[in-house]
Amino acid sequence: MNPRKTLQLILQGSRNIRFADFVGLVQAFGFRLARTRGSHHIFARRGIPELVNLQNVAGQAKPYQVDQFLKLVEQHGLTLQDR
Question: 36, 30 in Cβ contact below 8 A?
Answer without folding.
Answer: no
